[in-house]
Write a structure and sequence with these properties.
Helices cover 24% and strands 41% of the residues. The longest helix has 15 residues. The protein is an alpha+beta fold and 238 residues long. Strands 1, 2, 3, 4, 5, 6, 7, 8, 9, 10, 11 and 12 form a 12-stranded mixed sheet that branches. It is built from 5 helices and 12 strands. The protein has 2 domains: 86 residues, no CATH class; 111 residues, Gcn5-related N-acetyltransferase (GNAT) (Aminopeptidase, 3-Layer(aba) Sandwich), CATH 3.40.630.
Length: 238
Amino acid sequence: MKTSIINTKYTCILDEIPFSGDAFLIIESCPLLKRPYLYEIAGYRMAHCGASKIMFSTNGIFKYLPKSLNFGKLKTAYSHDMLLMQAQVPTDARYEPAAIFVPVKQHEIDKYINMHNEIFESIDNASFTRESDLKDCFEKSNYEIMFFYAYEKLVGICEIEFQSSQAIIDTIGIMPEFRGQGYGRMLLNNIFYILSAHGIKKALLVVSSSNKAGLSLYRSFKFKKEQTLSKWYVCKGF
């Protein structure tokens, strides 16, 4: 559910996930000193809609915010950073023959969405995907949405946007019951193999600093932090 709250000249955009109890809050066109007021008003409205936890981004002002904030009755604590990471694609990337990618077809969208939402349910700041979110991606000729099979088992998913000399790995994930078995490494191996075959020199992805397992895997593939895109806070105590 998306809602806009207009308070004179200030705009608050809400993007709520009611069935999970998590909600995301983004403030637009609001002076810094007015934000605490708007956070509290928006927080109570979102709580009234059923949100039990609100995550909000500092939208580029994170250098000036402390690790804990108090907006009236809303107790807010620093949660995590969203990191942009990049790696050079090795020219000798190793292909895993037991692992294959299968493009998602239009009639398989619901299946893909269900997998996506289960994979990222416990990851901070990983919003749930809807069919409308994938519509534009299917229409792009340089965008691939794929199931990932290993040893003939459907174990994960990935989305890749191919650009001239680089690729953006928009989504990469392994189903919870298959984690810790080396499938994430197989997935990345084959992604790098595909990128190398396409002449791609650099791979980019975004990951939460709270996703320790993902960070460890990416760093083992020589991914390095390029920049901190945003800092996120968790708001509770309605």
